[in-house]
Design brief:
Structural class: mainly alpha
Strand content: 5-15%
Distance between the termini: 45 Å
Largest sheet: 3 strands, mixed
Bound molecules: zinc ion
Strand order of the largest sheet: 1-3-2
Radius of gyration: 22 Å
Order of helices and strands: HHHHHEEEHHHEEHHHHH
Shape: globular
Length: about 375
C-alpha cells in the first residue's frame, strides 16, 4: 500500500488536524491562492493532493506548489465561468478522488519524457516543467501553456465518456446484428476498436476544449479565432493548441445532440454544452439514446460517425508514434463522412423535459440491409 492510501482514507477531523501541521512544517511559505472555506470538499481535496504529491512523488521540487496553484485555478475558473456548479461538482470531485482512476499526485515529467506536454498514469498527472511551444497559442506564456496541459489531463479525469465502458460495450454489442445485416461478415474488422476510439476522440476534443476555455478564462485573454491548418494531409479548421483535427467532427456531432446547439450557436457554445453534459455521468448513454429511436438507420449512422472518428483518432495518434497507422486510410474521406452524416441528423431541439426514455439495447434484431460504408482500404 502506498503511503498516500493511508492518509487518503482518514476521516475529516484527522485530515483537518494533520494537514495544516504538515504544510506548516514542510512548506512554511505555502498558501492556497484562493480561500476555499465555502468549498470545504475542494479544500480537502487540494490539501490531500498537496500532501500526496510531496510525500509520494519520486521527485520533490520547489516548484510543486505552482502545480497545486494550477489545480486551484482549474476549480476557480470552472466555478467562476459557470461550467462547474453545485450539480456537477460532486461528480467532478468523486472522479478526482477515485482510488483507482483519480488524480492524487501531481509532479513534473521525468527528464526522459521531456518531449511531451503532459501525461496521466494511474493516480498521477505529470506535467512538463518547461513548456515553450507557442505556435498555435501565440498569446499564452510558458506558464499558461503548462496550465493548459495540466487542465487537459484533469479534464480526462472528470469527463465521463471513456469511463462509461459498460455503456460503450452495450452499444458495440447491439450494433452487431445491424452490421451483419449490412454485409459485414468478417469479425476481424476492427469496428469495436474504432467505436471505442471514436468515443476517445470525442473525449480528447472536449478535454482540450475545457482546458483551452479555462486557460484563456483564467488568463483573461481572448481565445484565438478558428483558422485553417494542415494536418494528416487535410485542411482542418480549429482554434485548439493541439488535436485540432478532432474539433470540427466533435462540433458536428454536438449539433445532433438535443440541448447542445441552437441555430445560431457558436462552436464554443456547442462544445461547452457537450462538456456540461459530459460532467454528468450519463453523457455516453445520452448520446447513444439520441440515435436509439427505434430506427436502425439512425443507429447505424451513429456507428458510422464513431467509426470514422475512431479512424481519424487512430491515424492522429499514429502520427506521433502511438499505435500503428491504418494503411491506405483516406482521412479526408473520414472527415467528409462525419460532416455529411451529422448534417443529416442535425437536431435543434431542447433537452427533453422528462429526460430520455429508457434505452432498449435489444431492439435491433432485424434491421434493414444495405451496403456498408467504406473509407478507403483497410
Ligand atoms: Zn488527452
Amino acid at each position: 500500500m502506498a503511503q498516500s492510501d493511508i492518509f487518503w482514507t482518514y476521516d475529516n477531523s484527522t485530515i483537518k488536524d494533520y494537514f495544516p501541521y504538515f504544510l506548516r512544517e514542510n512548506y512554511p511559505t505555502f498558501k492556497f491562492s484562493f480561500n476555499w472555506e465555502d468549498f470545504p470538499q475542494i479544500q480537502d481535496y487540494l490539501t490531500r493532493l498537496m500532501f500526496n504529491s510531496f510525500s509520494n512523488s519520486s521527485q520533490v521540487r520547489s516548484q510543486l506548489p505552482e502545480l497545486i496553484h494550477d489545480v486551484e485555478m482549474f476549480f476557480a475558473a470552472g466555478l467562476m465561468s459557470g461550467i462547474f456548479d453545485n450539480n456537477n461538482l460532486p461528480s467532478i470531485l468523486n472522479n478526482l478522488k477515485d482510488s483507482r482512476n483519480g488524480f492524487r499526485i501531481v509532479e513534473f515529467l521525468p527528464p526522459e519524457l521531456s518531449g511531451v506536454f503532459g501525461n496521466s498514469i494511474s493516480n498521477k498527472i505529470q506535467i512538463n516543467e518547461r513548456m515553450t511551444r507557442h505556435g498555435n497559442s501565440p498569446s499564452l506564456t510558458a506558464e499558461e501553456i503548462r496550465r493548459l496541459y495540466m487542465f487537459h489531463e484533469m479534464g480526462h479525469k472528470i469527463l465521463n465518456i471513456l469511463s462509461q465502458g459498460s455503456v460503450i460495450q452495450s452499444f458495440i454489442r447491439t450494433i452487431g446484428p445491424i452490421l451483419r445485416s449490412k454485409g459485414l461478415s468478417n469479425p476481424d474488422l476492427n469496428y469495436k476498436e474504432f467505436v471505442k476510439d471514436g468515443f476517445w476522440m470525442i473525449e480528447e476534443c472536449l478535454t482540450q476544449e475545457l482546458a483551452e476555455f479555462l486557460t484563456y478564462y483564467s488568463s483573461q485573454k481572448r481565445r484565438p479565432q478558428f483558422e485553417t491548418r494542415r494536418d494528416l494531409g487535410c485542411d482542418i479548421k480549429t482554434n485548439h493548441d493541439y488535436y485540432g483535427i478532432f474539433q470540427m467532427p466533435t462540433i458536428n456531432l454536438g449539433k445532433t445532440i438535443r440541448g447542445c446547439s441552437k441555430i445560431n450557436s457558436t462552436n464554443e457554445e456547442i462544445l461547452i454544452n457537450m462538456i456540461k453534459k459530459a460532467l454528468n455521468s450519463n453523457f455516453t448513454l445520452e448520446l447513444i439514446s439520441e440515435y436509439n429511436q427505434g430506427n436502425a438507420q439512425l443507429y447505424y449512422d451513429l456507428f458510422l460517425t464513431l467509426r470514422a472518428m475512431g479512424m481519424v483518432k487512430k491515424q492522429k495518434y499514429a502520427s506521433f508514434g502511438i499505435g500503428r497507422p491504418i494503411n491506405g486510410l483516406n482521412v479526408q474521406s473520414c472527415l467528409n463522412a462525419i460532416e455529411h452524416i451529422t448534417r443529416n441528423n442535425r437536431d435543434l431541439r431542447e433537452y427533453p423535459e422528462n429526460g430520455y426514455p429508457s434505452i432498449d439495447f435489444n431492439s435491433y434484431q432485424n434491421p434493414p440491409s444495405d451496403s456498408m460504408g467504406s473509407f478507403g482500404q483497410r
